[in-house]
Design a protein that fits this description.
About 30% of the residues lie in helices and about 25% in strands. The protein contains 7 helices and 13 strands. The chain has helices at about 40-45, 80-85, 100-105, 115-130, 170-185, 195-200, 205-215, and strands at about 10, 30-35, 50, 60, 65-70, 90-95, 130-140, 140-150, 155-165, 185-190, 205, 230, 235. Strand 3 (about 50) and strand 4 (about 60) form a beta hairpin. The termini are far apart.
């Protein structure tokens, strides 16, 4: 596949700087190298870029086109999922087990995982700084599902989710989308369009439009601490 440019090689020292994501190659690769640390991660997300790579290679930084997002009105809750929510038997929690959620997201993936130990360490540091959050779904006190992501102002990027009980990762996503928008989040990013995300109401937007939305969202002042999670179908928790 012909590339429009060679992805830039980034030195891990010095202040984090990324090339214009609009110049990414046809697959969305922007740059190689740099460092997986909070300053680099925050600079990447502010510019519509995220890391995704495998063990044994340097960090790869991506900004694909199109991007997948949820809007306040696009979320689709099927009848079966609504029944699961109404049936209950679970509780929702926010930021009570961030590292455990990341570790669970990394487990038992047929196609391997990009959630490497070094990535867990880096995002855990973001979590301590208040820029990364998790949503947990518990059944009888045990972690049954969850998701995690990065927040900058009014922007939230959901990175990954997992479930140990059928449909409960969808419950975590529904709670996050509805509750975060209600709290002031303006852009809820889920990276790449997939059949699964499309079925839940994710919308594909051109990267150029996404970057415009992102530039405005990160300027908003949004505090998710202490948020009350609500699925919108009769289940609320913290």
């Amino acid at each position: 596949m012909t590339r429009r440019f060679r992805p830039q090689v980034l030195a891990p020292t010095g202040p984090p700087r990324f090339p214009d994501p609009r110049r990414a190659d046809a697959e969305g690769l922007v740059a190689v190298g740099g460092a997986l640390s909070p300053p680099w991660l925050l600079e990447a997300y502010r510019n519509g870029i995220f890391p995704w790579y495998e063990l044994g290679v340097p960090p790869l930084w991506w900004s694909p086109d199109p991007r997948a997002v949820f809007t306040p009105d696009s979320l689709h809750v099927s009848r079966s999922l609504a029944r699961t929510i109404r049936r209950g038997g679970f509780t929702l929690h926010f930021d009570t087990a961030f590292v455990e959620v990341m570790q669970a997201c990394a487990e038992d993936r047929e196609d391997g995982t990009w959630i490497l130990p070094e990535m867990i360490d880096a995002y855990a540091a973001l979590h301590r700084l208040g820029h990364a959050h998790s949503v947990e779904v518990r059944v009888d006190g045990a972690l049954a599902a969850g998701l995690y992501g990065v927040q900058i102002g009014g922007f939230f990027a959901a990175e990954s989710k997992f479930h140990r009980v059928t449909d409960l990762s969808k419950v975590a996503l529904v709670a996050a989308v509805r509750s975060f928008f209600a709290r002031g989040i303006a852009l809820f990013d889920v990276q790449l369009p997939t059949e699964h995300l499309n079925s839940l109401g994710a919308v594909a937007v051109p990267r150029a439009s996404y970057l415009e939305l992102l530039a405005r969202a990160v300027l908003r002042e949004v505090d998710l601490r202490g948020i009350s999670l609500d699925c919108g179908v009769g289940v609320a928790s913290t």
